[in-house]
Input
Amino acid sequence: MEKYIRLWSVALLVTLLTAIAFNFWVDPYGLYQTNVGAEWKPHAANQGALIKPYQALRAEPVTLILGNSRAEMGFDPDDPAWPQQLRPVYNLALPGSGTLTAKRLFNHVLAATEPRMIVLGVDFMDFLVASDAREGDPGKSDRLLVTADGQPNKWRWVSMLHDGVSTLASLDSVLHSLDTLRVQGKTGVEHLTPAGFNPGHNYLAMARQEGYFNLFRQRDTENIHSYQRRHRNLFTGNSRTSPEFENVANILSMAHRRQIRVIVLIYPYHAHLLEILRMTNFSELFEDWKRKLADLVASEGRGDATLWDFSGYHEFAREQVPERGDRSTEVHWYWEAGHFKSVLGHEMLQRVLGSSTADFGVILTPENVEKHLQTQRIAGESYRSNNVNSVQQLEHGKFVLVPGSR
Output
């Protein structure tokens, strides 16, 4: 009996060590940056909160990208628009995250290295809060170098041990390693690059199968239903601030102390999304949000930060969506109304980095914000008069999906 137990123990140990070696070799999440499929990690796309804090430290970025999924899919760290002196670039944006996550990740990177520039994407809907809102739950982030209250995280090693076990010695990691080998080089597979960028290959597959009409209409439907349920406050109580604005202020003030340049970007929402904001009565709050951001960046950035507004009815946002039933026409600049493609991100980067003089994007300041908002109102009226059918479909809720849609 004792010999039988020893044999089983040896067999289990060999199996475990084999699994660890296999997972380390394949590296399905891109955490260890071994050579197998270094550019093709489909399961990394859903594990950003786990792997990106480690990858960001390893990258020692000169430029750091923060924001949500719009930034993760829109700004490629390998984009040729980045000048050599601002490389390497790491995309630390996380889907579904807000300004609290951005602040914590920024402090995490600062504890180990000091970038020269931060690109911070801000999303209007993240700033809509309850009137009695308080600082949000920072969530599980024990793998970060800094705790939620700004202190060194002395228990980080426990999370690192747990992350090592889950990515090397779990059954899920074995299955994900096998799947990583299976899908190598296949198009239409979502993944992250080693620099944290999501190329949107899953969107590409859906667009080819269903057409851009359905991608836009489904997300438009989701957005209009979601926005109708949102809070309608930017500020808490009788104040002129909120936890979301305070998080941005913290990032700006910390960057100023470290002499780090900050570029704050308002995303280039497609005209469909701008119209949904109008239809759901958010237009005035949207403008108030820009006014507050202009004041905040000017006061807390103290010359080291710039606010760029890429929202509005510019030529890219006015791009036509294919007609119902058209599955062959491609939308060049957008996946759907909320997520822009990296080709549009390239145009934005060229603009903010000074390599383009195109009339796209405006630097917002307290001095020019009112004139800018008036210009955008006029542009919106022009868009609606020239796109009557499209606007009427949105207003009347005619979100009809063709067969084969999700």
In short: Residues 398-406 have pLDDT under 50 and may be disordered. The two ends are 56 Å apart (CA to CA). The first strand starts at residue 63 and ends at 66. The beta strands are 63-66, 89-91, 117-122, 261-266, 305-309, 362-364.
